[in-house]
Design a protein that fits this description.
Blueprint lengths: L8 H8 L2 H7 L8 E6 L6 H7 L3 H5 L15 E6 L5 H8 L4 H10 E5 L8 H6 L2 H11 L3 E6 L4 H10 L16 H10 L7 E5 L2 H14 L5 E6 L8 E5 L11 H8 L3 H10 L1 E5 L5 E12 L3 E13 L5 E7 L6 H17 L4 E11 L6 E8 L6 H10 L2 E4 L4 E4 L4 E11 L8 H11 L10 E5 L9 E8 L2 H15 L1
Parallel strand pairs: 1-2, 1-4, 2-3
Antiparallel strand pairs: 5-8, 6-7, 6-8, 9-10, 9-12, 10-11, 11-16, 12-13, 14-15, 15-16, 16-18, 17-18
Helix pairs in contact: 11-12, 16-17
């Protein structure tokens, strides 16, 4: 399919003028009859699309957690997806809320299914279905409404213009604010610590020069990470081991051969788009925390959560799950850094959900050394578990203490993953998982405000995986519930 022409900027800006009013309507007790259009469209590069293609429809279903906002907010939710979720999935959501809220879900959740599982962004598929665009317009019926996207590209802008609705996300023109080099500049500008590194890298010689410069500040560095400037989710990152003395200018012939021996496509992309080289941060303990932000129109920012991300996969860069909140040893520091970054981004016109990824390391009993490594102007893997907590246990994140304080009293924490199961479970009926969790007594209990929330059950048909978020009073309680869930479904 040919790329769509860029949308007129002034027309999009006019549509976006309605965003503040739409966001103001979507809060508890606003009294404004309104609509939230969920558009979990993964508008990413072809490499990532190809990698996740078979699972994209199931990944979209992670954001069905958004329907739980009907526990807090009186509105209509229109959820767009590539494939219809199994009936038992919606029933599982209805079973973890109060009966009156379940009735509201049945009455006010509207699924718009494009019935296309091809490897294209959901927004692009929707644009090819004028009948479904008409259906969404009919659902909105002139009311206040907002599109909640995963990220915003020209596809999402085109949907916004076709519907005449604002989109709660950063405009495509500002996408480069999250590129690797721009992120490092942003961190330095706001006083947020970063790993020692070099921007503006294009060639093998540039990489070797960057290594020399890094080693002038960090003589004992054992490896560096080369990153494509425009990349995400670990795609475009490669670790280069340094196996020679630090005093060798531009490294040894062995190092040159290692860098020159990187895949041709990788070096071509580096040449065309540029990149950065950073020290590989190491320690006796190394973690990957993050902070999540809401960037508000008008230079406002809200720190909504911190997490310790769980990474895995062949390169150790694949998101596997998270723990909320981040370790209290550094969670308050993450919030301070996140607010500084968020204020800078909003002044540049960025809006919607954003995240900042960090690396935290320590040796022995020394304090944690926390450094920022990436900006994400989109939703992410921590969005859907946070959405479950926020809507099922209303409250707020205390940035000073680093805890979730429930409106009803007490604190909450959770452990979440998208990777319960495995290939051997492929084709397992979602109903069997729902029943196992229910029968074990660990399903989320609205009265207690704790328990397990299931998501992405459609993934069982693809690769045998589904997702779960275990909400407990404390991190330890959340882990207990999570472990009990694993026993129940195995």
């Amino acid at each position: 399919m040919m790329a769509r022409e860029a949308m007129p900027v002034d027309e999009f800006e006019r549509v976006q003028e309605a965003l503040p009013a739409a966001l103001a309507a979507n809060v508890p007790g606003s009294g404004v009859d309104h609509v939230v259009v969920g558009l979990p469209s993964f508008s990413v590069g072809e490499t990532l699309l190809a990698h996740y293609a078979p699972k994209l429809p199931a990944m979209e279903h992670r954001y069905l957690n958004a329907l739980l906002m009907l526990n807090r907010i009186d509105c209509d939710v229109v959820f767009v997806c590539s494939r219809r979720p199994p009936p038992e999935v919606l029933t599982a959501y209805e079973d973890i809320v109060a009966p009156a809220v379940a009735d509201r879900i049945r009455a006010r959740l509207h699924l718009v299914v494009v019935d296309d599982i091809g490897p294209r962004p959901l927004a692009a598929k929707l644009l090819d279905r004028p009948d479904l665009l008409d259906e969404i317009r009919d659902r909105v019926a002139g009311r206040v409404a907002v599109i909640e996207p995963w990220n915003v590209t020209d596809h999402e802008v085109a949907v916004a213009l076709a519907l005449g609705l604002p989109v709660n996300g950063t405009p495509p023109a500002l996408r480069s604010e999250a590129f690797k080099a721009a992120g490092r500049c942003l961190f330095r500008r706001t006083g947020v610590p970063v790993p020692v590194g070099v921007e503006g890298v294009h060639t093998v010689d540039d990489v070797l020069d960057a290594v020399t410069r890094i080693r002038s500040e960090r003589p004992d560095v054992a490896a560096v990470v080369v990153k494509h400037d425009d990349s995400g989710a670990g795609d475009g990152n490669t670790v280069v081991e340094l196996n020679e003395p630090s005093g060798v200018a531009r490294g040894s012939s062995e190092l040159r051969a290692t860098v020159a021996g990187l895949p041709a496509w990788y070096l071509d992309d580096l040449l065309d788009g540029g990149g950065i080289v950073e020290e590989l941060v190491v320690g006796d303990e190394v973690r990957s925390p993050s902070v999540q932000l809401d960037l508000l129109p008008g230079d406002g920012v809200r720190v909504v959560a911190t997490h310790d991300q769980i990474l895995g996969g062949d390169n150790g860069q694949v998101y596997m799950g998270c723990r909320f909140p981040a370790d209290p040893a550094y969670a308050p520091e993450l919030a301070v850094h996140g607010e500084a970054v968020g204020l800078d981004l909003t002044r540049r016109g960025c809006t919607g959900r954003a995240g900042v990824d960090f690396v935290a390391a320590r040796r022995g009993s020394q304090p944690w050394d926390v450094r920022a490594i990436e900006v994400n102007l989109r939703k992410g893997g921590t969005t859907h578990p946070y959405t479950a907590l926020r809507n099922l246990v209303p409250g707020h994140y205390d940035t000073v203490a680093g805890v979730w304080r429930a409106d009803a009293g007490g604190t909450r924490a959770y452990r979440s993953t998208d990777y319960v199961g495995g290939p051997g479970w492929t084709g397992r009926p979602p109903a069997s998982v729902v029943s196992a969790v229910h029968d074990s007594g660990v399903r989320f209990d609205v009265g207690q405000g704790t328990g397990v929330v299931l998501h992405m059950l459609a993934g069982l048909a693809v690769d045998g995986h589904f997702g779960a978020t275990a909400i407990g009073h404390t991190p330890e309680h959340a882990e207990e519930l999570f472990d009990a869930m694993l026993v129940a479904v195995t």
